[in-house]
## 1
Amino acid sequence: MVSLEGKVSDGHPFNSTLETGIRALVVLEAFYPRHCDLIEMTWLDHLVVHTGDLDGQDVPESLHPDLPNRAGELLVRRQLVERSLRMMQQVHLVEVFETEAGIEFCASEEAPSYLDLLQAPYSLALKQRAKWIANHFAGLKTTEMRALIESRIGRWTAEFRADETSK
């Protein structure tokens, strides 16, 4: 498999900061004007490609395969999502805000123009799923989103939280 950076990868779908950054940007644009913190972005990065984990009648099919060991992805994903958001900030596609609640991210004014250029079938499917997720989550507070995600994929968020508190 060749990554978006042109490097041959080992077949892992979350192997580059650029790929994760584009997913994060797609999600932030779908959620605009809402700001999301790093934990939310980590959850949303998982859900945008594993929408099937949410169940329900109108849930779009997952973009990535539902591998049995994907529970550990959230543990690995946090640092990658953080690096990708910083990279997207450096190219002025993501804005970073320091708030009383912590650091939050939002799509910049330049984001829509860039994302309009992404027209490959996978990119269009990713945008569609991000909009679907935003329609279901954008109105929720972080605590409400956490409760919903824990009810759907609780063992993953429990592992993710355990990893965070151990640092």
## 2
Amino acid sequence: MSNQSPFGRKPQSQPTLPKGDVLGTYETYVEAQSVVDRLSKAEFEVKQLAIVGNDLKTVERVTGKLTYGRTAATGAASGAWFGLFFGILLFLFSATPQIGFVLAAALIGAGFGMLFGIVTYSLGRRRRDFTSTHQVLASNYQIIIDPLLTAKAQDVLAQPDRPTA
């Protein structure tokens, strides 16, 4: 007896693409997500759905020039947060809690973060002198559904939206 469902899901170690019918194709992930949300609100078995992004592209948007000042500020900020976390732990678990623990830990963290940021930037300076953000975008998104549930899902989506209270 096979553990595989008609939807193509079976216990395995390697990821596979879901198999089934295409319920719809949408330009944005938000559109596909809203269809799944609508089905969920109608008590549909959403475990039998998958949103598949097609024609994936990596987009790197350059956000600015990387300088020693920017690196120092970023390092100091992240170090301060880290120090603040440890300062709060010291404050909470100290026999004689003092707010000075928190401030000192944040300042020490900022100093070490700034130093670490500058050293790291100096070592790799000529390889990357800009900051950026990465995104993975798809050309379209398809909702894949178990073929046994396609008609039921189409019926639910054909009904007009009911306003929620």
## 3
Amino acid sequence: MSETVPLHSIDVVIVNYRTAALALSCLDSLAAEAGEGMRIRAVVIDNASPDGSADVIENAIRERDWNWVHLVRSPVNGGFGAGNNLGIDLVLQQERPADLVWLLNPDTRVMPGAARELARFMAWNRAAGLVGTALLEADGSPWPFAFRFPSIQSEIERGLRWRFSSRLLAGYAVARRMGEQPERADWVSGASLAIRPALLREGLRFDEGYFLYFEEIDLCLAARSYGWECWYLPQARVLHIAGQSTGVTDAQAVHRRVPAYWFESRRRYFRKNHGLVYAIAADLGWMAAHAAFRTKQALRRDPSVDPPHLLGDFLRHSLAAPRR
């Protein structure tokens, strides 16, 4: 093999919004992955951060002589999917296309060897169109989950939070605790998601109608319709400090009101992929189950564990609610 032609090559897309320091830490971890037999290139899309993030990243790229990193300033914040689509379109135009396109959140840090594990797995498993890595919590503890597609049954299980019903509906629960071997899944976290370029060239993109949340579920469902498989790869590990741009999924999220775009994305997912009647049934299933859970809490005088106004906000954004 020629020394100028790497064994594996990966194009990385990072969408940044107000998290410049974390994005640079992610790039640092990627720099360590490049080496013999591995070529890494990265595109950072800054989604119109109002805090000067783009300037910070641009200066760091220049100071560190990172000629493998390209910064793009998006004129608008179109959301997670729109930012990634912009990056995907750019990397597919590269003169020397990569073997793999890897989408990483800026609040991730790649653990040693993760890039090589991803490249090897995709080279071996030709049916895999998308692969998610194992994620680690901010303290380094494992977060070994992949997911099932949401359904009416999963909404009831999620809303009720009752041990008996959770056991009864275990096969429908969205979160799946994964083992130590690669395994197929319905969908995987968009925080660290590798995609085969052939699938992207077939036209797979994020639906930009989602501003944030549910877009990776929709993407994985679309990939299945293209005939590709989605896999979880525990041998590739990535540290993830969740929710740094939004505050929705970080450790303090229970104390914050869920933003309107979360409900809008959920509503869009169910209606787009299952139709209006199914989407309304999913809404009613969650609300009835959650009302039962809240009643049980009140009878026990347990403290609330929900974000503020959760049930009211859900009803207001539900397809079952009357529209003006």
## 4
Amino acid sequence: MEKKHTVLVVDDETKILEVVKSFLEADGYRAYVAQNGDRALKLFENVKPDLVILDIMLPDIDGKELCKMIRKKSKVPIIMLTARVGEEDTVQCLDLGADDYVTKPFSPRALMGRVRAVLRRYADSAQVVADIISFRQGELEINCVSREVLVRGAPVNLTAVEFRLLQTLAKNMKKVFTREELIQAVYGWNYEGNDRSIDTHIKNLRHKIEADPKNPLYILTVHGIGYKFGGD
């Protein structure tokens, strides 16, 4: 029997919680809801969700701060809900470690599509042939089964999207990827967000794996085209 995924939904609006919980359960997920950050943290520790849907605006702990707190202890996929639609706000969500974002008001069915896509990407990132890929005399190691990344022997906490992005680039060292190609590899064809979100993930990834993010050795920019992997 296929394992049911557990989803934690955090929003201070009762109606949104009721609707999203109803749609999640109709799709076969176990759904838990919280209307504030304190309750969300307790549920997170108790139910260990496979995915978190998190509103930015919460009455106690700010949703952005809560995202950072979760990301420090877990690689669980996070979808942020935001009423803001500016590019700066969406980039900020991704900077915080979120894997995807949805702007309010949203279609519950569209949100369910995002949930399925994020969980699928998270699961697919482990489905590769090689177990461990090592670069530059072991300074960077990617374990494609356990989804662990080591930099000079120290573990690095990557989000699901960051890991998928690094894995895609590292397994295709000679290929230069456009942003559109990376979106297809990381998000799938159904992604509706701004293709510049890839730039934000690249920036975050560089800060985590590069000794000097401004002069990267691994994630290289090919001006006018996109990105490629520069490890050896």
